[in-house]
Amino acid sequence: MRLNTKVQVSNEDNGCYAKIVMDPLDKGYGITLGNSMRRVLLNSLEGSSVTTIKIDGVAHEFGTIEGVKEDLLNIILNIKGIILKSHTADVKILRIDAKKKGEVTAGDIITDADIEIVNKNHKIATITADNVSFKMDLRVERGVGYRLAEQNHYEDMPIGTIPIDSNFTPILKVNHSVMDTRVGNRTDLDKLTMEIWTNGSIDAEEAVEKSSKILIDSFSLFTDYKHVVPLAPVLLEESKATGAEMDMDLTIEDLELSARSSNCLRKAGIAKVSELVVKPMKELMKIKNFGKKSADEINDKLEQYGLKLKDE
């Protein structure tokens, strides 16, 4: 019987939050779709961020600015909190030229039609004296994921330019849950509920749409055989282990455990599934607040990947 799946969408907080309910789905598809969408939403969507700054009169990140309350390290921390929306793939250089006593905010950044500042009230620095000039250039790029400061160096970078860490991900959080549902006499069906929170640089529904297209493009590779190259026999043998290796590389966060179980594992220094499944059950039971309920929950999650906790 073909399922008549319905999709319900609610959008709140000026598009920064969306709740999506898909019902009904074939058994197992709730987890399959939910996990896939969550990964793409958190790891594959493009965003914009400041990658380097250059402040007049400052040569390095440990410098100070006369007449400014914050030290440079705190200013850099504040810069990282600026939320940008870019309408171009080009690198943009923005400018701050503040001369008045008081707070300097993201709203003081001089932009053009290609760049929008989402959180204009976000504080960058505080000028504490009159006749103080606070001038800064900010280099804005588009990217995916998180980039460390050392990765933001570029060719012919001017002296005095300071690379900073950049978070391009526009998604703050993604939750998904799967419940049993029924249609007529069929009770082996799934109901998927997803919640998405964004930083305001992208609409939550738009983020879901873009993530869906990324998945569709990826899955289309399985149906497009125009450029298929036969694998050598030795590679075919090696490929048998690939799926298991990928599952072992999952992080504890990927399992979406309860806060109690997740905190227990984190305090025990267990960060990956590969570290978890080799721990004997007796050793796990010695972790503070870790009990049978936590073990059962973890085994339920691991079962989705064909794994389980070590009995001895």
Write the layout of secondary structure elements.
Blueprint lengths: L5 E7 L4 E10 L2 H15 L2 E10 L16 H9 L3 E3 L5 E7 L3 E4 L9 E3 L5 E5 L6 E11 L1 E2 L14 E2 L2 E2 L3 E13 L2 E13 L5 H16 L13 H7 L2 H7 L10 H9 L5 H4 L4 H5 L6 H12 L9
Antiparallel strand pairs: 1-2, 2-14, 3-9, 3-11, 4-7, 5-9, 6-8, 10-12, 13-14
Helix pairs in contact: 1-3
The total of helices stands at: 9
Largest sheet: 4 strands, antiparallel
User: What is CATH's topology name of the largest domain?
Assistant: RNA Polymerase Alpha Subunit, Chain A, domain 2
Q: Give the overall shape, derived from the CA principal axes.
A: globular
Q: Give the integer mean of the pLDDT values.
A: 88
CATH class of the largest domain: Mainly Beta
User: In which range does the helix fraction lie?
Assistant: 25-40%
Order of secondary-structure elements: EEHEHEEEEEEEEEEEHHHHHHH
Number of strands: 14
CATH A-level architecture of the largest domain: Beta Complex
Tell me the Rg in angstroms: 25 Å
Number of domains: 3
> How do the strands line up in the largest sheet?
1-2-14-13
Low-confidence stretches: none
**Superfamily (CATH H level) name of the largest domain:** DNA-directed RNA polymerase, insert domain
Strand content range = 25-35%
Distance between the termini: 45 Å
Structural class: alpha+beta
Structural overview:
The chain is α+β, with helices and mostly antiparallel strands. The protein folds into 3 domains: 101 residues, RNA polymerase, RBP11-like subunit (Gyrase A, domain 2, 2-Layer Sandwich); 121 residues, DNA-directed RNA polymerase, insert domain (RNA Polymerase Alpha Subunit, Chain A, domain 2, Beta Complex), CATH 2.170.120.12; 81 residues, DNA polymerase, domain 1 (Orthogonal Bundle). 27% of the residues lie in helices and 29% in strands. The strands form 5 sheets. It has a 4-stranded antiparallel sheet with strand order 1-2-14-13, covered by helices on one side. A 4-stranded antiparallel sheet has the order 5-9-3-11, with helices on one face. Strands 4-7 form a two-stranded antiparallel ribbon. The relative contact order is 0.15. The model has no long low-confidence stretch (mean pLDDT 88).
